[in-house]
Input
Amino acid sequence: MHVYAFNKVTRVLGMIIRTIRYKDTRVMMSLYKTLVRPHVEYCVSAWNPHYVKDKKLIPKIQRRFTKMINNMEEKTYEERLQCLKLWTLEDRRNRQDLIEVLKICNGLSCRASMCSRVPKQN
Output
């Protein structure tokens, strides 16, 4: 699934490169959050990458996109993330997993029956 998502997002990035001339931070972040990130994060808890090669493939998307923004080409990846107030995709996946576990254990998810044996703490 991750290879499919990578290929799909690569096509979306190509479209953005070809069509958007004004690469202002606000415009590009709006495009990233609406066109790119949903493809990367779709069903992420189900296909969370386990292999190192897969874990390196997914962040390439965000690295590539952040370089496309004006005045970000010379900065390191970590500096770009900090300037744009973005998390790494791995951190977002981990956060999403923790939120899902919290929902399950508190009976807020449709998968609440999975945690029926886990005692709730007050």
Notes: Residues 2-87 form one domain. The two ends are 39 Å apart (CA to CA). The first helix runs from residue 2 to 19. The chain has five helices and no strands.
